[in-house]
Amino acid sequence: MFGKVYLFILNILRSSKLFTYFLWGIKIDKYCHTTFWDLTSLVIKKELSIIKEEKYLDMGCGQFAILGQFYKKRNVNSKIVSVDIYDDLVENSFNNSKINKNDIQIIQSNLFDNVNEKFDLISFNPPYVPQKKDDKVKYTKIRYSANDGTETMSLFLGKAKNFLSNDGKIILGVNSYYVDKEKCLSLIKEYGYDIKKITKILLNSSIAFTIQKSTK
């Protein structure tokens, strides 16, 4: 019963323009779908609140580039690049950043395909729900990722180190309800990264892994 009530309230909050402004400081006009943020975004946000880096890549920015905009508001002199695979989400993010007067660059790219520089910080809230047929989901690539939910995460980890500055770090967010924490730890090590920090929030099943290129 508690789980159903929690999910009901969460869905209301995630679709609320007023609550989103209160939580993120971002005004919302037009939107492409009714989920404005998720639990994993909140854990990444917690880490972004205490980090100051000169160049930040917001991978998989969604319909508002909400993490990129949040970071820009706190670090006005930082260069922010936000990326998404869907053209209409990129367009909506661009328009929304203008409404909020946040000067960030927003580009369409399948992961790093159209990214041509290195960053001090990269964050990614990848799709991690195991693939299933669901005709009601329009943006399947922001939700589903093969049979075990790790395909996109693996592709990202395999390429990301080439886009990090020497001391650059990655914040990788995953909901452990869908992908087991130990599976994530195994993949992070497999692709040559050291784990510097693991962040959680009370009553939130998501985890943020702060990682860097392995020195071994």
Question: What is the CATH topology assignment?
Answer: Rossmann fold
Helical/strand content category: alpha/beta
* CATH homologous superfamily assignment: Vaccinia Virus protein VP39
What is the total domain count?
1
Strand content: 15-25%
The spatial strand order of the largest sheet comes to 3-2-1-4-5-7-6
- Using the CA coordinates, give the radius of gyration: 16 Å
CATH architecture term: 3-Layer(aba) Sandwich
Mean pLDDT: 92
Q: Any idea what the shape is?
A: globular
Low-confidence blocks of residues: none
Highest CATH level, the class: Alpha Beta
What's the story with the biggest beta sheet? 7 strands, mixed
* Total beta strand runs: 7
Task: Describe, in plain words, how this protein is organized in 3D.
The protein is α/β, with parallel strands linked by helices. The protein has one domain (2-213): Rossmann fold (3-Layer(aba) Sandwich). It is built from seven helices and seven strands; from the N terminus they run αααβαβαββαβαββ. It has helices spanning 2-14, 17-24, 39-48, 66-74, 87-99, 151-160, 181-190, and strands spanning 55-59, 79-84, 105-108, 119-124, 164-175, 193-199, 206-213. The chain has a seven-stranded mixed β-sheet, with helices on both faces. The longest helix is centred in the N-terminal third of the chain and has 13 residues, at 2-14. The chain is globular, with a radius of gyration of 16 Å.
